[in-house]
Amino acid sequence: MKHPIPNHIPLENAETIALQALAFIASDAARLSNFTALTGVSLEDLHQRASELDVLAAALNALLQDEPSLLMFCANAAIQPDDFAKAAHTLQHAITTRGAQADPAKD
Question: How confident is the model at residue 2 (pLDDT cuts 50, 70, 90)?
Answer without folding.
Answer: low
